[in-house]
Description:
Elements: H1 11-55, H2 58-65, H3 69-81, E1 85-91, E2 99-103, E3 116-126, E4 131-142, H4 144-192, H5 216-268, E5 273-277, E6 283-284, H6 290-295, H7 317-332, H8 335-342, E7 348-351, E8 360-370, E9 376-385, H9 387-410, H10 415-436, H11 446-463, H12 468-477, H13 480-489, H14 496-521, H15 530-554, H16 565-577, H17 581-601, H18 605-622, H19 631-648, H20 652-663
Antiparallel strand pairs: 1-2, 1-4, 3-4, 5-6, 5-9, 7-8, 8-9
Helix pairs in contact: 1-4, 7-8, 9-14, 10-11, 10-14, 10-17, 11-14, 12-14, 14-17, 15-17, 17-18, 18-19
Amino acid sequence: MKLEKNKTTSIAKKVITFVILINLFVSIIVLLFQIKKDREDFDASLKERFENLERGTTTLGVDIYGEDEPKVMSFLKGLIAQDDFSYTFISEPDDKEEILYEFPPKDALPGLNKNFEKRVIKVFVTDESSKEHVADLTIFASKNRIDEKIKSKINFFGGVQLVQIFLNVFLIFFVFKSLVGKHLAKMAVYAQNLDLNNLKSEDLILDRPSSKKQDELESLVLSINIMKQNLDKTHKSIKDYTLNLEDKVKDATAEIMEEKNNVATLLNNMKTAVFSIGKDYKITPPVSQYSQNIFKKDIVGLKASEFLFINVKKGTKEFSDLVSGFDHIFKKGTELDYLIGKDYLPKKITLPDEENEMGMILKLDYSPLFNQEKMVEKLLVMVDDVTDIEGDYKQAKNDQLHFKFLKEIILIDDKELLSKKLEIQIQNIIYVLDDFVSPLSDTYGKDHFVESFKNCYAQLMINIQNNLALKEKLSEIVSEKDLFDTLEKASLEIKFQLQLTSLLCDILDCVLIYMDTLKILYPVKFKIDKHLSATILEKINDIEKIFRNLFEYVFLVREIDSISKEKLQKVVQVAKLYPEFERTIDLIHQRTKVLSFLLRAFKEEELSGVYENLSSLVKQIAGIERKNLNESNIKNNLIDPYRIVLEKTSNIQEIFEEKGKKAA
Length: 664
């Protein structure tokens, strides 16, 4: 293989450049120190000469005092004859401008610039008793001599450096070329000519005398020869592997298929739906065959929201928790985030079921599947149908709760007072629920729902503060701190009406169970409020009106008993296109739930159960997207349960009038 020719440079050039720069740097530093020392020596010498001159002006003072001009001028000429002294004059002590003597004449000088140092020496005449200042001697000393000396030294330094650079370049280049360069070139040519198909060529040997000690070049040559041998071995191994690769691939494929079949067999023999959810929330294979039995369709490629979480409705806390759970698991993805996110995911869900009008109850378990970076790649989901045992389990839990309440109520002395307190609280909860689902509720803001709920719940907890079993159960339903923090901080996406109405229904259900348990030990006389009776009738008529509008004006069906298969298909198509379908279903679910509690308080247990059943079945389709609705959903969860409601409420007006007479 030929190497592409690129721009190259010589290592010798880099070495030469580096050495020259280092030498220049060091030499310049030394030169600067020498120049500095020369200037300091010059300044010190000049200072010393001035000081000596100042001490020897006694004779000059006498000559000036005696106005002996020849001697004075002889003194000045003697000064100028010395090195560095360029001009001097003598002036009056009080008038520096009046020059008495000077040499040489100032006009003959080129000019006194900054390159001259000026010194003024006072000249005195002394006798035995006095000392008189007779004149000032001014001397200009030139620095040209030291400047010339420094300039000469710099020129000499430059010449020496040029010679040194030339010699260094020549010697380094010659030595590197002869001792290193030609051997490196030979190595490069040898490496370039290596042929993977013919690595039996002679080993690399340098053309130079052998040495007892191994230097860097010999180490490099030895490494190249060893590399060639290793390449030869590796090339043979790869060639052998390539020749046998087809057989190995067949064996590996057979082994993988066997393992895949074993896994498929294991999954298909399980009575559990097993599948995995990817980061796009879609189901990826493998999927156990039992998943088809539960979901009645092939779920591969579907999103989990299209078949598993269809009842988790947007705007509810359950939906917010579901989103938070998946965000922790997939968007963050660590093992710790999985453990946190798993707690947000639902553990049980209820789906519509053609074979069971109350729906199919599924128990969900989760397990993470990590990639090589220990991040969650997929979420494994195991689904068990617990419909058959859930009813027994729920009944057992209710029996256990009744027994727990019974043990507490037995120990209460004033059961009449307890009965009155419960009656007041039940009516208070009913009034708040009535407000939450009234036609005016659409005009309420978040604050109204939150404050009404808080006040109702606080009043209830004050009145049952000594009923520890009931208080404990209510605290399980409503975790005050978590709930109120969530409500205060939640975004507007949370539907407070739906959330708090559901919680109030659970609270009322718990209080009614406590009241039912009290009835076993004490004859509770629950007074029927006329307003309550009127409210129940009003809500029954209201629900009937909602259904009538839905069927007659939307679905164009006047009699639900006469819905044929063709009409049912048309109803489903209309429901998919009706934009208010979800809101209408939510409204039916809430109001039938509240009505079931009102009827229960009114001692209409059978009718209460009918509406509770309607509410439960409608709830199952409340979260289903309109595009996923089918004939089974509409018939089993909407039409059939409402048909039963119509049968049970055909003479409801007479029943309530009779009850009112008995109560009176």
